[in-house]
Write a structure and sequence with these properties.
The chain is α+β, with helices and mostly antiparallel strands and 354 residues long. It has two domains: 4-168, Aminotransferase class 4, branched-chain amino acid transferase, N-terminal domain (D-amino Acid Aminotransferase, Chain A, domain 1), CATH 3.30.470.10; 175-340, D-amino Acid Aminotransferase, Chain A, domain 2, CATH 3.20.10. Helices cover 24% and strands 29% of the residues. The protein is built from seven helices and 19 strands. Strands 1, 2, 3, 4, 5, 6, 7, 8, 9 and 19 form a ten-stranded mixed β-sheet that branches. α5 (258-269) crosses α7 (328-340). The protein starts with 7 loop residues before the first strand and ends with a strand. Bound molecules: 2-OXO-4-methylpentanoic acid (COI). 2-OXO-4-methylpentanoic acid (COI) is lined by residues 74, 200, 234, 300-302. Residues 74, 200, 234, 300-302 line the site of 2-OXO-4-methylpentanoic acid.
Length: 354
């Protein structure tokens, strides 16, 4: 059984961090010095450990390698204006991890183990949190079936790990997206609302085809005859229509994005009308023709806000004006950044100072 105050900590003899390393890092390629690890065996989580980032050894029988029983989270730590390190919405990420674990028949991970492990890891690797505008440290907690057994059934042993890497937002330029009319990301009753590895693996092939056609992402729909739009690539999808912020409602086919939720809270607080409702692809095109589709963008932890410049649906396309500092998406992004970097008060209690 784990105890919070006694994680074993093995530090690197010397940090790998060198001047200039945090400038323009490629997403997911530069690990910080340390990682967190805890094992689940005999029906309980064992003591967590912080150790130097390193490869792990797995049997070829490891259940996850065969059946993808694995879930993850993606969150960010920010350098605040006073130099402190802030992990954004730690507890909300834990709540979502729990939903994913439950859906994938995996054991619950105690909130204190999640919270304390990440706080202690970030305390040790705090120098890796960039201090440049827009950059952050991406924190990737994940749990996978580590039991060496190839039976097609839930495993009895799991590993929980946390790794971190410096990032700048994905999709800094406006993106072209195509409405995906053949492939589907999720189906009712499926795993679409869980942050499980298989959802991402299944999206790679349609996304690869879209990239070959000159798009940066697809818009996933529900596959119904009305093609209700759901997500864009790995992000939630938002529109500004007639001055309102409009986004598809959460369901078992849509991930409960924490950036999505944060932007909706900020919009409501700033008096921007918000609608969470189904949107057909035809409605988007009609709104564009009427001149009331003002903005479209993706919202996610990695990208924060990714402006969409063009939406293509078979032979038809929508070209949206370039975003400016006055665009609603940019105003929302700015308020979000101001909260998490400590430039304005955090009225929602989202910040966790390390
Ligand atoms: C994120 O936006 O953080 C995600 O989890 C998507 C990731 C796969 C890039």
């Amino acid at each position: 059984m784990f105890t919070l105050d006694a994680f074993q900590i093995t530090k690197v003899p010397e940090s790998r961090l060198k001047p200039g390393m945090l400038d323009q890092p490629v997403f997911g390629q530069l690990p910080t010095d340390h990682m967190f690890m805890a094992s689940y065996r005999n029906g309980q989580w064992e003591q967590g450990e912080i150790l130097p980032f390193q490869p792990i050894q797995l049997s070829p029988f490891t259940s996850c390698l065969h059946y993808a029983q694995t879930v993850f989270e993606g969150m960010k730590a920010f350098r605040m204006n006073d130099g402190n390190v802030n992990i954004f919405r730690l507890d909300r990420h834990h709540t979502r991890l729990e939903l994913s674990l439950n859906r994938m028949a995996m054991p619950s991970l105690p909130q204190e183990l999640f919270r304390e492990g990440i706080l202690q890891l970030l305390d040790l690797d705090r120098n890796w949190v960039p201090d440049t505008e827009d950059a952050a440290l991406y924190v990737r907690p994940f749990v996978f079936a580590s039991e060496a057994q190839v039976g097609a059934k839930p495993a009895n042993e799991f590993l929980y790990m946390v790794v971190c890497f410096p990032v700048v937002p994905l999709f800094q330029k406006a993106i072209r997206v195509k409405v995906e009319t053949h492939y589907r990301r999720a189906a009712p009753g499926g795993t679409g609302a869980a942050k499980c590895g298989g959802n991402y693996a299944g999206s790679f092939y349609p996304t690869k085809l879209a990239l070959e056609q000159g798009f940066q992402q697809v818009i996933w729909t529900d596959g119904s005859p009305e093609f209700h739009v759901e997500e864009s690539g790995t992000m939630n999808l938002m529109f500004v229509m007639d001055g309102k912020l409009v986004t598809p409602p959460l369901s078992d086919t849509i991930l409960d994005g924490i950036t999505r939720d944060s932007l909706l809270h900020i919009a409501r607080a700033e008096g921007i009308p918000v609608e969470e409702r189904q949107i057909t692809t035809a409605e988007l095109f009609e709104a564009f023709e009427k001149g009331i589709l003002e903005e479209a963008f993706g919202a996610g932890t990695a990208a924060v806000v990714a402006p969409i410049s063009e939406i293509v649906w078979d032979e038809r396309s929508i070209n949206l004006p370039s975003v400016t500092a006055n665009s609603i998406q940019m105003q929302l992004k700015k308020s979000l950044e101001n909260i998490r970097r400590g430039y304005i008060e955090d009225p929602f209690g989202w910040n966790n100072i390390v």
